[in-house]
Amino acid sequence: PVPNSTGLNKVNDGSFNVPDPTGIEDGVFHQVDSASKPVPGGPFGGLSQDSYSGESEARSLDRIRQTENLKQKILDLTKDQLASEKEFELLRERKAREAEEELRRSVQEREEALQAHVRQLEKERAEVEQRVTALTLSKQQYEQKLKEKDKELIRIRQLNEEQKKADKEVHRLREERKRREQQEREGALKDSGKTVADKAAVPSPPRALKPTTNTAANNLKSQGITATTPVERPGASMRSNNNLSRSRSFPNLSMASEESASESMGPATSAAAPQFDRSLKPSQSVETNTAFITHQQRTRTGDGIYPRIRSNSPSSGREFQRSAGLRNLGNTCYMNATLQCLANTIPLALHFLSDRYKKDINREPRRGTGGEVAHEFKSLLAQMYYNDKSVAPKGFKSLMGRLCNVYAGYEQQDAHEFLLNFIDKLHEDLNRAVNRKGAPAPLPPADEAALSLNGRINRFWCQHLDRHLSVVSDLFEGLLVSNLTCLVCRKSSSSFEVFSCLSLPIPAISGSVCYLQDCLKLFLETESMSGEAAWDCPTCKQKRKAEKRMIIARLPKILIVQFNRFRCETAWQSKKLQTYVHFPVNSFDMNVYVDHTRADTQRRPPYHLYAFLNHYGTLATGHYIAYCRAGLGGQWYMYDDASVTEVTLSESDKRNAYILFYTSVDMRHQFTSQS
């Protein structure tokens, strides 16, 4: 098309193309050229030039405004589109984050559930292992009992066979004696020339019984059988009544006295017919009695005292050897292990075995047992030290069960509680203090306030010794002081506690190993008291922040240390700490942990370990084993109930230690002084 002066585009075919008045062609806005507007006087005529020019300008302005409006609408639409796209993108990202967080949370919950399941499985496995260990120990004990029973049955069979042989021999000797007596009577009748009728009336000569009886007795002795008279012995009636078997470590003094009486009677008593004591148990064979009597006759001295009894006395210089094992009477390993540690406490054992304890027995009915516990403990010590075989502490357990109901049954108990209960009973039986009846008179408040801490400690200890004085307190007791100090007015208050066993906490440290020194530091460290635990200060008349400090004021000669391995998690469940606590065996200096600010504080020589008690398993289904030094050589022995084994102490033996026994007393000095 060719533009002309009218503003129309002329097409080749002669027609005209009228432009879009909006100025938009094919969606594109075209600027209208003002020069191409129609002019008046053209081929079509029209308006005047001035009026047409004003209308064109108005249309142009309208088009411009419309164009601007369209641009603005397009711009607004574009902005809205961009905002919508941005909002959509943010929404998509938020949904993605929420989905990822939900997935992570579900994975974490699943992981925690799996970890809890793993912990439960580990706990069940530990319980199963403990049950397996307990069953293994029970199986071993049962097998050991079966072996002992088999040995006993074999010995009983042998004794029965020997008894049958002895009965046959006795029957043969009786028949032979009757035959010889008949022959002697017939010979005597022939020599006297009497008739056959007179033979039946003639009695047998009494003098012929003596050589015949002596011959039968000698034959019995040659076969290992002792002929006894039908006189009832006190020892025999005792055996028949209570069915107890006498220990072979002690001679039967009642039998010895009767033998001496029978010897003093002369040969006239040998005319009695041989009799046999049928009240003996199979374990007390006639051969055993024969050998025992022969040994007594061989060792008898002129004054009637047996050297064997003298050699068993601890005051005669006899070297202490290891004690015998103690049989388990049904979950009594806690008692057996504790008694082994006390039996190897040489100063305590010597005090009882030498009978020095008898002069200290407290006869007051309201305190102690009148010496019953002390006598039973001495009897048990004598059996443990003078017997090579294991001892069944039935009498001791029965007595403790009568005094404390918890020990009457056959349930597992805590060895630490049993130790404290027993030495407390022992102390009450042997308390020889003069003023044990009355309580000490208190000081006036002014005098009490004027005393220093050292003065209060000395006063308390002197008052304690006035009311508590025994071999137990002399060996095992020390003194703890708990001191509270107000941080505002510096007012201090002290409380005193006499201890016979130092209970130490086990620190919660990384790893499974700590040292005894760490336990002592934790026990003695200063504790801050604030908040609800603040101290009600008597000087400030209100609750104040305070410091609590534990002080060891006096150390005992025999130091017993117990580790707090059991913690109550719930009302029905306790947890055992399996932490391995390293502890020194020799030259353990406790003076560094004692308050030496006081001039009269006694320094102890270094402590040496002489016994310790291990606990395996849990509190309800555990097992106790004792390790003790015995003899002058200081050999270590493992006491597992009735089993006693010499061992070389290793770290694995010390890993499960529960109670430690240290001594600052020279054991060799104890042996020498007693000798």
From TrEMBL:
It comes from the Eukaryota. GO terms for molecular function: cysteine-type deubiquitinase activity. The keyword Hydrolase applies. Residues 1-61, 157-289 are annotated as: Disordered. PROSITE patterns: USP_1 (PS00972), USP_2 (PS00973), USP_3 (PS50235). Residues 237-265 have a biased composition (Low complexity). Residues 324-665 form the USP domain. The keyword Transcription does not apply. Residues 157-197 have a biased composition (Basic and acidic residues). GO terms for biological process: protein deubiquitination; proteolysis. Coiled coil: none annotated. Keywords: Hydrolase, Protease, Thiol protease, Ubl conjugation pathway. It catalyses: Thiol-dependent hydrolysis of ester, thioester, amide, peptide and isopeptide bonds formed by the C-terminal Gly of ubiquitin (a 76-residue protein attached to proteins as an intracellular targeting signal). It is an enzyme of class 3 (hydrolase). Its EC number is 3.4.19.12. Belongs to the peptidase C19 family. This is Ubiquitin carboxyl-terminal hydrolase. It comes from Rhipicephalus microplus (Cattle tick).
